[in-house]
Design the sequence.
């Protein structure tokens, strides 16, 4: 876990919102049940809720995935994202021990 990359990923309001939404997708995407798969949410639903362009949300999700904060699952032509709760536990432990 690279601390600098993690904190850079967390330094953007929209990326923080995405992480919050993915913590409880059923509550934050109630009208997009068809855009969910195994706890993940389709990029299109995230993009629509974030109100940013497709390329921007893809860039944000890619960064969150590189840092390990989210995981992706590709099903056919769709990619679904969900939080990596293990990474959040590691981040919590890092903050408690080192910061």
Sequence:
């Amino acid at each position: 876990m690279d601390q600098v990359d993690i904190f850079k990923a967390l330094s953007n309001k929209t990326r923080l919102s995405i992480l919050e939404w993915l913590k409880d997708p059923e509550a934050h995407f109630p009208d997009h049940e068809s855009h969910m798969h195994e706890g993940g949410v389709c990029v299109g639903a995230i993009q629509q809720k974030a109100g940013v362009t497709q390329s921007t949300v893809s860039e944000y999700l890619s960064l969150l995935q590189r840092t390990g904060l989210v995981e992706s699952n590709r099903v056919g032509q769709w990619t679904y994202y969900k939080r990596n709760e293990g990474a959040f536990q590691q981040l919590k432990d890092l903050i408690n021990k080192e910061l």
